[in-house]
Amino acid sequence: MLQRVTPATLAALGLPMQADAAGFRGAMRQFAGSVCVLTAEGDAGPTGCVASSVSSFSAEPPVLALSLAQRSSTAQALRTGRALGISLLAPEDEAVAQRFSGFTGVSGAARFEGADWLRLEPGARVLSGALAGLGCEVQELLPRHGQVLVLARVHTIAPRAGQIAPLLYWHGAYRRLHQGGDA
Question: Best label site of 7, 116, 142, 155, fewest CB within 10 Å?
Fold first, then answer.
């Protein structure tokens, strides 16, 4: 049965009828996402960030979609350099995620220290032990609402052997996926 909820009912429950920034952020915290490190090289040198919003856009050709803050160093680097590296992290890569998160005070080339990197075509850096490393070329940057939507064509893939659960980000913290046995 479908029940229509009135604004008065929502107000009585303490729930907003219209989406606002705080409500939207709260709702988005409920989405669990795989943690990726994005890397780029621009005029200021190598940089990168953490993202949990990378998604498949097209299989033929292979294209990914993601968003970045317009003012981020990674978005700025992608305006001049078109190569984008995407590393899907495993739980043991949480320290790499912390360095690239921006909350530790480490920035620029210093974020790459302490880990091994591969360079994939078209010139993108990916973490050598990532569950999957993707060498991409940016096809389009679409600025909207203080963000930039990035469409990136995947040129090369460096997969890690085996079935290992990814590092997740949910409700403001890194999490590990607990895999159960067969049902």
Answer: 116
